[in-house]
Amino acid sequence: AAKSLGRNNYQIFEGSAEQSQQQNLALKSGLRHAEHKGELRVFYQPQVDAVTEDIVGMEALVRWEHPELGFIGPGFFIPLAEETGLIVSIGEWVLRAACRHAQEWERRFGLGLRLGVNLSAVQLMQPNLLEMVSAALDESGLEANLLEMEITESISIKAAPNLVENLQGLHRLGVRIAIDDFGTGAASLDYLRKLPADRIKIDQSFVKNIGVDPDDEAIVRATIEMAHRLKRGVVAEGVETEQHMEFLRANHCDELQGFLFCRPLPQPVFEKLLLERQRLLAGISGTAA
Ligand code: C2E
Ligand code: MG
Ligand code: MG
Ligand code: MG
Question: Whole-model pTM?
Fold first, then answer.
């Protein structure tokens, strides 16, 4: 059933380590104008319930539709945006667009889908982060508890001014917090202890090794169990095979995200998916009645 969520491919330019200095400079200046030229897009990837495989949320993932290069992936341009400080306005643009889309889907389909949005470390240190997030919620009308901000453990809690205060402030607004790429940073457990995190996202580098490396399997299992003992939810990222899914399900992971179910989709395509799902459900209840 999950595979009916679609397997569309969107070719994305990821850049490479050999990217020349010159190319980077050109891209940085292009990035400066990408937002007001309307070249940024938000794609959405479903998150599904591990047991029912039903959609329960989606992660917003930004792409840059470059006039010559086509779609450029965030793994490539987000670091450039962080270096130049552009991430602050790009991140705000993504959040506002994603909240608008999510509220529109909520109005049309009423599924209570949770919206995950990535926050860069640079944004987390902004003194006006709370005002920015509140404004995005207010202007879209999206309920705060449908928004989940995903943070990575790439920054040290001690070294980041405003980080803990900002996250506590978000929590007070009713926004949820997820620790992204869990297990890959240097301070996972410290994060878990000190930050108001509702959920853990198990990094795909561990999930990829399910069925391959027993040590990584042990880490996945232990992470799920630890999250549950701490009364946190767990999502696994990068679920690509039936074997990954079976293992995660057997070990009581709450939610799954990955190519096995669906790739990140452009907004109109994701919307079609929700519409189809609604038709399907209406069809089922139609025959039952
Ligand atoms: P992330 O937040 O950990 O997002 C998950 C990444 O894994 C996405 O890559 C997604 O397309 C990819 N993915 C999902 N399922 C699978 C799978 O089954 N197999 C594999 N191999 N990959 C899968 P994407 O979209 O290229 O994003 C990369 C990273 O860029 C994100 O990692 C996130 O850290 C960052 N990013 C994306 N959008 C934003 C944004 O709006 N703001 C910020 N600050 N960072 C963003
Ligand atoms: Mg994420
Ligand atoms: Mg991740
Ligand atoms: Mg990542």
Answer: 0.93
